[in-house]
Specification:
This protein is α+β, with helices and mostly antiparallel strands and about 150 residues long. The chain has three helices and seven strands. The protein has one domain: START domain (Alpha-D-Glucose-1,6-Bisphosphate, Chain A, domain 4). The termini are far apart.
Amino acid sequence: MQLLPLTPNCTIVSSRILNAPVAHVYQAFENPEQLKKWWGPHGFTNTFTDFDLQVGGKWNLIMHGPDGANYNNESVFLIVDKPHRVAWYRLTNPLFHMLITFEELPDNKTKFTFHMIFETAKECDAIRNYVGDKNEENFDRLEVVLKTMNS
């Protein structure tokens, strides 16, 4: 399977400039012990059952919501290009491809971007109105983890 094309009507893009070098941001993603601390919106915790960060490797996790609900997530990695980009496709709903890019900026900063890519505009529009805020919460949590990694 190949990554779906980045088309505006089928893609949700969320991005943040992080005050950390690319190597640290990538490490916060590739290390499951760090990743589970920040993955998901505020109030969520994670249990990883698989995290095989290689092309064809599986990422299976259960996100535990603050309301006590559990959300199973199963994905397969499509691209692992350390430290520039990682992509996967989800096997659980909502179905989409995720591309994360890590762009080195001056002054040891990183532009960190989520590209959520859907097969149809209808699927994309079904979550477009609320996913941006949730991705921002993800980035907030990542910034906290990056501070603890740097201290």
